[in-house]
Design a protein that fits this description.
- The complex is a heterodimer of chains A (587) and B (86).
- Chain A has an 8-stranded mixed sheet.
- In chain A, helix 1 packs across helix 5 (124-144) and helix 2 (70-82) packs across helix 5 (124-144).
- Chain A has helices at residues 39-66, 70-82, 86-99, 103-119, 124-144, 151-159, 175-179, 199-207, 243-264, 288-296, 308-311, 320-334, 371-376, 378-391, 407-427, 444-448, 450-454, 464-472, 490-505, 522-529, 541-548, 553-562, 569-579, 582-586; strands at residues 3-6, 8-11, 14-22, 165-170, 186-191, 211-213, 227-231, 236-239, 280-285, 302-306, 339-343, 396-401, 437-441, 459-462, 509-512, 533-536.
- Chain A is an alpha/beta fold.
- In chain B, 36% of the residues lie in helices and 23% in strands.
- Chain B has helices at 15-26, 46-51, 69-81; strands spanning 2-6, 32-36, 39-42, 59-64.
- In chain B, strands 1-4-2-3 form a 4-stranded antiparallel sheet.
- In chain B, a hairpin with a 2-residue loop joins strand 2 (32-36) and strand 3.
- In chain B, helix 1 (15-26) runs antiparallel to helix 3.
- The longest helix of chain B is centred in the C-terminal third of the chain and has 13 residues, at 69-81.
- Chain B is globular and about 35 Å long.
- The N and C termini of chain B lie far apart (29 Å).
- Classes of the chains: A alpha/beta (587), B alpha+beta (86).
- The A-B interface holds A 74, 78, 81-82, 85-88, 114, 117-118, 121-123, 125-126, 129, 133 and B 11-12, 14-15, 19, 22, 42, 44-48, 50-51, 53, 55, 86.
């Protein structure tokens, strides 16, 4: 009989596959030693395991090549190459012979040491290779300890082409782990912790992986190889469902893929409502690679370029030239007219930057982050502003400041921008002197003062993820608070409505760059309120455009007013569902 | 003997080039090293070659002694200056 686990919807869609449970690495860290008299025999056992590993890798590689998957095959070819490496296999053997290590302990410890060396390098590609080294080490250790080749991995290897791909089960996935998921092997994932707006969830949505997060400790009772259904939209995970339930989900997955094909047809269409209102459907991105992905998925520009990813995981701050190249590349991806909103770095909160040597804080989300840091480090900030300005010569680039709470902060940031412009002019370096400059509205204080800000800025972009967190006083990472972390609370809707009206009274445009912008239930409300720009995960763009073409803005004004006058989020959603019949088809 | 090369590959010494270097080094009987910024790395270990962290524009010296050293150095140098990625 199957089990049903409830969590928070992180990324909709249905995934069916076999469990691959990722456990924290601590379990293998214990070092076992052997009787020194046995060392030679242990070394021979080790050599045999290395040879078996080579046979396994060759079989996987040949199979992938046979399926035409040359890229995947090459990964395993590189793993086989590592099996001959003195630094890895040779050093492990030395630990056995000279220090009487049990063979599996020797290879695991050596792999860990090598991975740490690679992990410390100032190159994201090489840092990722540390995962390959660990993988090879674990493969040998598994063979040594006589554990069966674990079923899920084999299934994942062969499942790359079939429907039986794997479902990752983990306590938590870091954003980089989520970003590294291989769509050909992984069908979806489920985690014990995390919330709907955690960065892993955001990356899952942009990659189109169904995902459920915040399930709790029960999730970790799942074992490798169990059949799993992830119902991302409903936040449900089923373990070993019975045949009838499984058939039902398979049918729903089929219907989903049919809908995806329907949305796909909207990839290159203009973003226009049924009554001819033009809005912008743009993407949230973190890198130049994301920009290309977003363009492929139908985004007409970028509403939020999170530049902090350029700053993270490295030993030195990125130079002006390096930042300029990254910004220019994104601007050029979308062409001269498409808007690209570059947000200055938002370090702090859940994104740490050891380089800045910031103190640990009890409440990082309420602490020293984003513009608060930038204004204290004018040289670092101006380097970024100059890079953004230089990129503005190559496209429709706009600059945006995060975490603005007061007019004073906005004016200080703007003054530094003007200083950067003067410096560039003095050096004869081209930029767009008319570059639009706006602010994020994510702090309720700024939402309440939007009328004042609107006189001075060129635009607003409402960061609803943080706005909800701050307005509801609910940590977005805490699964116990997920009912509070909902943008449909009328308190939040009133703030959003207030900001939109304040902007329009001054003739300024306003967008949303939180996850709310891509939510099908929110789209009719926001369109009715008059929102100009919707910036979302790239994977949500075509669906939003499909829905937009079915909505009449002039008929949604009353809905937009009605949702402000309810008791709670559930009532607001009820109203939307009643008003927009097309939503029933896609939810 | 040693020769110094400038890395031309836009993505640095990554997967495929690193492996080609190791293969070329292993074809030579004696020790072969890469030197960058005063640090020396065995060219016979993929892990070590990756650890060099060589990027486009970096100068890397290839060091080897004995019979066939020059051929080994030139073979590795050819990979360092190649622009072919992967």
């Amino acid at each position: 009989m199957g089990a049903r686990l409830n969590g928070t919807s992180a990324s909709s869609g249905i995934a069916i596959g076999y469990a691959k449970v990722l456990r924290a690495e601590t379990e293998s860290s214990e070092i076992r030693k052997i009787d020194p008299a046995q060392a030679e025999a242990e070394a021979a056992r080790f050599d045999a395991a290395v040879a078996s590993a080579a046979t396994e890798l060759e079989a996987i590689r040949a199979k992938l090549l046979g399926e035409g998957k040359t890229h995947e095959a090459e990964i395993f070819e590189a793993h086989a190459f590592l099996l001959e490496d003195e630094e890895l296999v040779g050093a492990a053997r030395e630990k056995i012979v000279a220090e009487s290590y049990e063979a599996a302990s020797a290879i695991l410890e050596t792999a860990q040491e090598v991975a740490e060396v690679l992990g410390a390098l100032d190159d994201p590609y090489l840092r990722e290779r540390s995962a390959d080294v660990l993988d090879v080490g674990r493969r040998i250790a598994r063979l040594l300890r006589g554990e069966q080749s674990d079923g899920a991995e084999e299934r994942a290897d062969e499942g790359a082409s079939s429907e039986g791909r794997m479902i990752l089960i983990a306590e938590d996935l870091t954003p980089s782990e989520t970003a590294g998921l291989d769509a050909s092997a992984v069908a979806g994932f489920a985690t014990a912790v995390g919330g709907a707006t955690s960065h892993s969830a955001i990356i899952a949505r942009s990659g189109g992986f169904p995902a459920v997060v915040g399930i709790g400790a029960d999730l970790m009772t799942v074992r490798d190889g169990q059949l799993i259904v992830v119902d991302g939209g409903n936040g449900v995970v089923l373990v070993n469902p019975d045949a009838a339930v499984l058939a039902d989900y398979e049918a729903r997955r089929e219907a989903d893929s049919g809908r995806q094909a329907a949305y796909e047809a909207y990839r290159d269409r203009p973003s226009v409502s049924a009554d001819g209102v033009r809005v912008e459907l743009v993407a949230n991105i973190g890198s130049a690679a994301d920009a290309e992905e977003a363009k492929r998925k139908g985004a007409e520009g970028v509403g939020l370029f999170r530049t902090e990813f350029l700053f993270m995981g490295r030993d030195a701050l990125p130079s002006e030239d390096e930042q300029y190249e990254a910004y220019r590349e994104v601007a050029e991806t979308f062409g001269a007219d498409a808007p690209v909103v570059i947000r200055t770095m938002d370090i702090g909160g859940d994104k740490e930057l050891p380089l800045l040597e910031l103190e640990k804080e009890d409440n990082p989300f309420l602490g020293y982050r984003a513009i608060r840091i930038s204004l204290d480090r004018p040289e670092m900030f101006k380097t970024q502003l100059r890079a953004i300005l230089r990129a503005s010569a190559h496209g429709n680039v706009k600059a945006m400041f995060p975490m603005i709470a007061t007019l004073r902060e906005w004016r200080a940031a703007k003054a530094l921008l003007e200083e950067a412009k003067r410096e560039l002019s003095g050096q004869g370096i081209p930029f767009n002197p008319e570059m639009e400059t706006g602010i994020m509205i994510e702090i309720p204080a700024a939402a309440m003062m939007a009328d004042r800000f609107a006189r001075e800025v060129d635009f607003f972009s409402i960061g609803t993820n943080d706005l909800v967190q701050y307005a509801m006083a609910a940590d977005r990472m805490n699964p116990k608070l997920s009912t509070l972390s909902d943008p449909f609370h009328p308190a939040v809707l009133r703030l959003v409505d207030r900001v939109i009206r304040a902007a329009h009274e001054q003739g300024k445009w306003v967008g949303i760059c939180g996850e709310m912008a891509g939510h099908p239930l929110a789209l009719p409300v926001l369109l009715g309120m008059g929102l100009d720009e919707f910036s979302m995960s790239a994977g949500a763009v075509t669906r939003a455009r499909w829905l937009l073409e079915r909505l009449h803005r002039d008929r949604l004004g009353s809905l937009a007013t009605a949702v402000l006058d309810v008791d709670d989020a559930a009532e607001a959603k009820e109203l939307v569902l009643r008003e927009v019949q097309d939503l029933r088809e896609i939810l | 003997m040693q020769k110094t090369f400038t890395v031309e590959n836009p993505t640095g010494i990554h997967a495929r080039p690193a492996r080609k270097i190791v293969e070329a080094a292993k074809a030579f009987a004696g020790d072969v090293f890469l030197e960058k910024a005063g640090n020396r790395f065995s060219a016979k270990s993929l892990v070590k070659v990756l650890s060099v962290g060589a990027k486009q524009g970096d100068s890397v010296a290839v060091v080897a002694e004995g019979d066939g050293a020059e051929a080994a150095i030139d073979a590795i140098g050819a990979v360092l200056v190649s622009q072919e990625s992967h």
